[in-house]
Structures are given as structure tokens and as C-alpha cells.
Design goal:
Number of strands: 15
Radius of gyration: 26 Å
Distance between the termini: 33 Å
Number of domains: 3
Oligomer: single chain
Helix content: 40-55%
Structural class: alpha+beta
Number of helices: 11
Amino acid sequence: MTLTHMICLSYYLKEMLVEKCLKYVSLEHNLLKMINLMFKKRIMHRKISLVTVFSFWGCISLMAQTGYQVTFVNKQEANGFKPEKVYLFSIEDRAVLDSAACENGTYVLKGTATLPKLASICGTATGYNVVAAFVLDETPLQVVLDRGVKVEGSDVNARMAAITDAINQGGVDQRRIQQEATTLAEKYGGQLPDSIGKRLDKEWEDVSARQMHALRQGILDNKDNLIPAYFIFNYDDVLGMDFLDTYLRDYPYKQNALLKSTFHKLEGAKRKAAGAAFTDFALADMQGVSRKLSDYAGKGHYVLVDFWASWCGPCRQEMPLVKSLYEKYHPKGFEIVGVSFDTNKEDWTKAVEQMGMTWPQLSDLKAWKSEAAQLYDVRAIPATLLIGPDGKIVASGLRGAQLQKKLEDIYE
């Protein structure tokens, strides 16, 4: 692969990350990622009259409800955007708060709800075809859709828009850099001069740094409102677990439903952090016998937990190296525990046989819902955990040359 191709591929991969980050705050995208959550209230049964119960909960309900009004002005009818109805959707509750039909390009959505909450105006009752996302409170809001979208009427939404604009501008700048890299690569016959490549890399990193600064500073400056919950929900993968762990400890809205997935990721990150004691789990082996990770780990030897699946191409590509490392270091005590994310036992066992994997293999055939995947927040495979002789995590994510080098350092 030429240097130009490598540079272009690098920019392409970075662009994918940027697009992923932007898709929840840009009008260019119509889908807003939602968490499917169901909330249940448990009421302790006591020996009190029905009148008392209804009166009590009626008072609580009245106290909790606050009025709101959102006026949506659609100036894009001439361009074909003419929904008969729009919906005011609670992002965190995944529920419709109100709907309104069009009257001369204007839709008025109003009612009462427990406020504040994160909301969006959508073209469907399911929460998709998002026009705008914002903080809904008792302040009357006007959402204007023209060439862009503006949420007018409250300071908190002005601040939310400023953060969004900074992130979006970064995306524009990165697309410009990518286009320049592609054009120059063609000009120089498929290989960029080092000086140009370094300049473009520096520009890219500067733009990325500005985006991250705007995002983190926006979160830090708005600890008293729901803005951080919105941006953490959309960007927790790039914000960094250390930053989020520190920030969320005393964030007043940390119980917001949108942050449930972030806390799950934090728990997984802590479990696989270097120095942490491994968290045990039990899965069936290929004979159907339940085995624990502790049957192998913490016994005085290094153990590699290898998350894989028969349908995973990169896992199969990695396996010859893993096999060679096992054969080389197993006589010195090195062990591997394979954890398959297959759902079909025949596919799993056939792949083990085909690739000559002679080390212990475990699976509950639940794929991404596997107990092990949930405990260690495994969201992509291949993935690994290296556990030391004392049962503490040495490293996570070691693959290829990195894994080879680590084992050489340990055993040679």
C-alpha cells in the first residue's frame, strides 16, 4: 500500500469517526440514536384507603408537572419538507409528549410534563426523522427550520447550539482537509511528499483538538443543566472514560436515563483496567459443562481471554498468530480461554476444529448479550484481556504484534 493510500485510508477512517460523532447533532442526518428503556414503578402496598392513595398520587402528579410550549416554524415547505404532523418526543423517556398539525407552516406543541427533559421535534411518532433536539423546560420555545435549524427562547438552548456549531464546524474543516489530501495525492501520482503529509496531519489534529475542547468545555460549563447528558450520550466513546468517570461523580442529572449506557461502559472499563482484579463469569464449554474464568485465571500463570466468533473475519485472520503464540508459550504456563460470541453451537465447534484451537473454549451462545460481553463491555471483536498470575488485569486489547511483543517480554 502506497503512502498516499495509507494517508487517504487514515483520513477515511477518521472521517467515519467524525460522521459518527456528528450524526446526532447535524441536520444532514435523520436518525437520532435512542436508548430503548422501560421504566417501572413499584408501589409498596399498604393498608390505606383507595381515596388516600388516589389523593396522594394525584397531588404528587400535579406537583411534578410543568407546562411547556414549543412552536415549530417550517420554512422548508418549498423544498419538499411538508409533514402533516410533527411530534414532540422525549428522548430520555422515548415517548411522544405531544403532536400538532400544520397551520400555515407552523405547528404548536404544548402540554405538561416533568421538566426539564431532553426533547426533539420529529417527523414520526417513533422518534425518527429528527428536526431538532433541545432542552425542554417551562420557557416557551420557537424552533425554526430554514437552511439550518434554530432553537430560540432560552439561554440553555443557545449554549447547546454553540457547542453543536463548534463540533459541526470541525467536521466541515476535516472534510476540507480530506478533500485536499485526495486532490494532492492525485497530483503527485499516488504519493504525497512528507512535508505535505505532515502539514495535513497537523491541520487534522488541530481541528480534532478544537472539537474536543469545545465538547469537553461545553460539558464542564453546563453542569447545572441537561446539556452534558445530551452530549455525553452521543459522544461518550470519544470523551474518554477517565474524564467521564470524574465528571459524572457529582453531576446533578447523572440519573438521567440517557446516561445508563455510559455508566455501563464505565463499569466495563473499570473491570478491564490494568491493575484491576478480574471479574469472574461462568459459561459452558463445548461439552456443555459450566466453567468459570476463575478455573483458569489467578492460578499463578498468565491467561489470555480471547473474545471471538466463527463469523468474525478479523478473528479468523488473527487466529494463526494466536495459535502459534499458544504453542510457543503454553509449555511455560501460558493459557488462553476462548470466549465465542456465536449463537449456533455447530458453527462455533466447527470453527474451533477448523482453526485447530486446542485451548479451552467457552460460550453461552448469546453473542453480544453474553455475560462476559456485558461484564467487560465488549462491543467489537476480536478483543482480548491479559490476566497476570495474581489474577489482576495486565492489559486489554492486545492483538497482533502488540500481543506478540508483550508475551516475548514476559517469557523471554
